[in-house]
Design goal:
This protein is mainly β. It contains 2 helices and 9 strands. Helix 1 (about 110-125) packs antiparallel against helix 2 (about 135-140). The longest helix has 14 residues, at about 110-125.
Length: about 150
């Protein structure tokens, strides 16, 4: 399991909260994601289409999308669609963690509230106090490991 212990492990980390009051889709099937993403589903639901399979997420689910992934996402508002995504990359010195051996997947959500509290802290301080973001990000990013097996906390 990846154990991020210093600010050097992450080269980029930011959060974005997405909200829509109507259904919508995003097509990343021909443009791979430029960073890793951990999605915390807050309202509504989503279907993530990866090759010939569909991963459905709903309120309280956590989704991991590795860097370089291609997929189509269909977001369903009920009444709204709200999710918070942590976008991150590892530093070049940690390049083995960026290998394409992990697929898009739902992660165990037993610690959803604990982890989501860390995401809210990242959101709060990512621009005003960037140095305080990385300890919070280090608590959220451990599901990535060398062999592509999710090792979640």
């Amino acid at each position: 399991m990846l154990n991020t212990k210093s600010i050097d492990d992450l080269s980029f980390c930011a959060t974005v909260k997405y909200r829509s009051d109507k259904d919508y889709s995003c097509d990343y099937s021909s443009s791979p994601r430029l960073c890793h993403n951990i999605v915390f589903m807050l309202e509504g639901s989503g279907d993530i289409i990866v090759k010939n399979s569909i991963i459905t997420i709903k309120k309280g689910d956590i989704l991991y999308i590795p860097k370089n992934s291609t997929y189509i996402s269909n977001w369903k508002a009920n009444p709204s669609c709200v999710f918070h995504s942590v976008h991150f990359n590892f530093s070049l010195s940690k390049a083995p963690f960026s290998l394409n051996n992990v697929s898009i997947q739902k992660l165990p959500n037993e610690q959803f509230e604990f982890l989501y509290d860390k995401v809210k802290t990242i959101q709060q301080y990512q621009y005003s106090k960037p140095a305080s973001v990385y300890p919070q990000a280090q608590a959220v990013t451990p599901p990535i490991c060398l062999h592509g097996i999710p090792a979640f906390l």
